[in-house]
Amino acid sequence: QVQLVESGRGLVQPGGSLRLSCAASGVTFSDFAMKWYRRAPGKEREFVSSISRDGGSTNYADAVKDRFTISRDNAKKTVYVQKNSVSPEDPAVYYCNISWPPRDYWGQGTQVTVSS
Predict the structure, then answer these.
(1) Sequence-separated (6 or more) residues with CB below 8 Å from residue 44
(2) pLDDT at residue 22 above 80?
């Protein structure tokens, strides 16, 4: 049974930093690319970032490019996203994702709040 558990929720000031983690179980972690998504209040869930199986290739949404950094530790079965220069547009519930056809697996999400 695949399980994804996000952590690192919290309150951060504009311009601050926060790191989110997502621990996976029930899957051979290194066999899968990993993705982060987010859903802001009143909006659809949107792609944030992805990382290849070995961590050698990453992609970012334009809204977070140059501010967020995705990484992974295959030994720990964990993917991270380091959020720097947090902006007022970043508050959302952040989800990690594994796509294992025919289905997608999602964590429960972790809330990030931005406030001064």
Answers:
(1) none
(2) yes
Q: In degrees rounded to 5, what are phi and psi of residue 59?
A: -140, 150
| Peptide bond just before 102 cis, omega within 30 deg | yes
For residue 82, give the nearest of 72, 92, 74, 97 by alpha carbon: 72
Can you tell me the distance from the alpha carbon of 24 to that of 12, in angstroms, rounded to the nearest whole number?
A: 25
Backbone angles phi, psi at 29, to 5 degrees: -55, -45
Distance separating alpha carbons of residues 59 and 52, to the nearest angstrom: 9
Q: Per residue in 76-101, pLDDT tens?
A: 999 999 999 888 888 899 999 999 98
Model confidence band, residue 12 (pLDDT cutoffs 50, 70, 90) = confident
